[in-house]
Amino acid sequence: MPKKVILDVDPGIDDAMALCMALFDPDLDVIAVTAVGGNCPADKATRNVQAIIEQIDPPRWPRIGAASPPDHRLPVDGRYLHGDDGLGDVKFEVAELRTRHPSEKVISDAVRSAPNSVTIIALGPLTNLARVFQRDPELSSLVGQIVISGGTVKGPGNITPAAEFNIYCDPEAAREVFRSPSTKTLVPLDLTNQIVLSYDLFNRLPEESTKVGKFLRKILPPAFRAYRQQFGLEGIHVHDSIALCAAVNPELFAFREMAADVETMGELTAGMTVFDRRRVPAWRHNMEVAIEMEEKKVVAELIRRLGGEPVE
Ligand code: RIB
Ligand code: CA
């Protein structure tokens, strides 16, 4: 039975890669892709979700949720990595969205239609999920599992010294989700920073004659350029693809039950994920955190799920 999933995304090039992996996976029933502002403003995130789906044309088109701006957004800008339009400034054409269903309504309806059997894979700020839980508190107990790309346990942030981007964009929303009674799995930067895909990725992509192959060859070059210019890296991080992999191939990861919360007020630490790692913790465990992975097998899975050439 295919696993029912919702992908909540702020595309974003690594979000787009994760969508390419998920939307062609016969083991996944992607019932919805909901947009959230983050790497780009809410309206562009919605447009990008539709652009990605139109470009790769998956066998089953998911419902699309439209993003709306968060209530407490911190001043942040993802253009340095993802371009002005969020997809490397490739400027994809998009058919106009007929009716825009708000992301939080799409999520709420989908979870209520299949209680305790939907996995929400959150690859952007947690604005939508927090809204769903605020408007319908019972819902957090009806979601099967929430897999979150973001946060840091011991390592530095990536948008400030203390905070990871997704959490930093909307710390109040992240705290709401972290404190909810939902079943959560966090895939933090400590882990996702360990994988850097080199230019060899272009030799592993699906054929250019395929829609995914053609799409990825358009959005990946701007990502490689941005990583070289911003970080001097000869490769790219793929945080969201790894988080997706943790949701669909958990056997490749090790997890630890932990207690976490989010700093929402700190002048220097807003958006920081704080874990009670004292010898005798006082906070109750509220999530499992991915602490290790079989890197080579995860990379091989990413490539395989993209429909690319197997990695030796
Ligand atoms: O910190 C990495 C995360 O922030 C990824 O989800 C990336 O797409 C950005 O949203
Ligand atoms: Ca993202």
Task: Summarize the helices and strands and which ones pair or pack.
Layout (H helix, E strand, L loop, with lengths): L2 E7 L3 H10 L5 E8 L6 H15 L6 E3 L13 H4 L20 H11 L4 E5 L4 H9 L9 E5 L15 H5 L1 H8 L5 E4 L1 H4 L8 H4 L6 H21 L7 H10 L4 E6 L1 E3 L10 E3 L11 E7 L1 H11 L7
Parallel strand pairs: 1-2, 1-4, 2-3, 4-5, 5-6, 6-10
Antiparallel strand pairs: 7-10, 8-9
Helix pairs in contact: 1-11, 4-5, 5-7
The protein binds alpha-D-ribofuranose (RIB) and calcium ion.
Calcium ion binds next to α1.
Give structural attributes.
312 residues, alpha/beta, Inosine-uridine Nucleoside N-ribohydrolase, Chain A, eight-stranded mixed beta sheet, two-stranded antiparallel ribbon, binds alpha-D-ribofuranose, binds calcium ion
- Number of discrete helical segments: 12
Number of strands: 10
- CATH class descriptor name: Alpha Beta
Q: Compounds present?
A: alpha-D-ribofuranose, calcium ion
The CATH architecture designation is Alpha-Beta Complex
CATH topology label: Inosine-uridine Nucleoside N-ribohydrolase, Chain A
Task: Please compute the radius of gyration using only Cα atoms.
Answer: 18 Å
Helix content bin = 25-40%
Structural domains: how many: 1
Distance between the termini: 30 Å
What share of the residues does DSSP label as strand, in percent? 15-25%
Largest sheet: 8 strands, mixed
Superfamily at the CATH H level? Ribonucleoside hydrolase-like
SS class: alpha/beta
Uncertain spans = none
The mean pLDDT is 94
Helix-strand string: EHEHEHHEHEHHEHHHHEEEEH
